[in-house]
Specification:
elongated, 2 domains, D-Maltodextrin-Binding Protein, domain 2, ModA, single chain, metal ion binding, signal, molybdenum, five-stranded mixed sheet, molybdate ion binding, alpha/beta
Length: 243
C-alpha cells in the first residue's frame, strides 16, 4: 500500500511539474525594429513584476508578418494597428500603446532649420525605411508627397529595411539626413546633430498597439501581459520613449 501511495505521489508531482512548466512557457513578442527600446523595456518590467520570460523578435514589419504567418511561434505583434489589421493575420484583441511620431534627423556637424530642408542641395544623401515594409517609411513617403518634395529628393534617397538602419547611417555621418521615429532618436543626445518632428497632418496617424495572435496557445501569458500594459508602470515606460 505504501509503495502504491509513493508511486501515486510521484505521478502527481510529475503532473504538477508539467502543469507549472506549461504555464511558464515563454511569451514571444515581435515588433518593428524602430520600437526595440520601449518593447525591450516593457518586457523586462513585465518579467520583473512576476510575468513569464519574454522572448523578443525585431525586424521590419514585412519580415515579421511573414514569420508570424509561417511559424506560428509568435504570440503578440507590436506595431501600427491599421498596418497589422491589413496583414492577413487573425488577432484576438488589441491594446493601444500610443501614437508614433515621424521625425527627420541629421548627423553631428550638420543642421536643418525645417524638415523641408531635405530638398536643399546640401543634403546629398537622404535615408528612409522601405515604405513597403516599414510604417515609418510609408509615413516618410506620404510626407514627401504631401509636402511637394517627392521629385526634389528622388535622386538622393537611400531606402533601407528598418528605422535603426537609418539611425545608424545618421550616427555614422554616411547620410546628411534621414526619416526615423522619435522613439529611436530622442535619447541619442550628442550622438547625432538633432531632429525635427514632421507635421502630423502630412502623414496618416501611427497608432501603436499590441495585438495577440488568435491562434496562440499562450492565452494566460497574453492575458497577464495585456493587464501589465494597462498599469501606470507600463504607461510611464511608453511615455518615456515618446509614445
Amino acid at each position: 500500500m505504501m509503495r502504491r501511495i509513493a508511486c501515486l505521489c510521484a505521478v502527481l508531482a510529475a503532473m504538477l511539474c508539467l502543469a507549472v512548466s506549461a504555464l511558464a512557457e515563454n511569451l514571444t513578442l515581435a515588433a518593428g525594429a524602430g520600437y526595440k527600446k520601449p518593447v525591450t523595456a516593457l518586457a523586462k518590467a513585465f518579467e520583473a513584476a512576476g510575468g513569464v520570460k519574454t522572448d523578443l523578435i525585431f525586424g521590419n514589419m514585412g519580415q515579421i508578418i511573414t514569420q508570424a504567418k509561417g511559424s506560428g511561434a509568435i504570440d503578440i505583434l507590436v506595431g501600427e494597428k491599421n498596418f497589422l489589421d491589413k496583414a492577413g493575420l487573425v488577432f484576438s484583441g488589441s491594446v493601444p500603446l500610443g501614437h508614433g511620431v515621424l521625425v527627420v534627423a541629421w548627423p553631428k556637424g550638420k543642421t536643418l532649420a525645417a524638415p523641408g530642408d531635405v530638398a536643399k542641395p546640401e543634403v546629398k544623401r537622404l535615408a528612409m525605411p522601405d515604405p513597403a515594409k516599414a510604417i515609418y517609411g510609408k509615413a516618410a513617403a506620404e510626407y514627401l508627397k504631401k509636402a511637394g518634395l517627392e521629385k526634389a529628393v528622388a535622386d538622393k534617397l537611400l531606402v533601407v529595411g528598418t528605422v535603426p538602419q537609418v539611425t545608424a547611417y545618421i550616427q555614422s555621418g554616411e547620410v546628411d539626413a534621414g526619416f526615423v521615429n522619435r522613439t529611436d532618436v530622442m535619447d541619442l543626445g550628442e550622438a547625432i546633430g538633432g531632429y525635427l518632428e514632421i507635421d502630423p497632418a502630412l502623414y496618416a496617424p501611427i497608432e501603436l498597439a499590441a495585438l495577440p495572435l488568435a491562434d496562440s496557445k499562450n492565452a494566460e501569458a497574453i492575458k497577464a501581459f495585456a493587464a501589465f500594459l494597462a498599469t501606470p508602470q507600463a504607461r510611464e515606460i511608453l511615455k518615456k520613449h515618446g509614445l
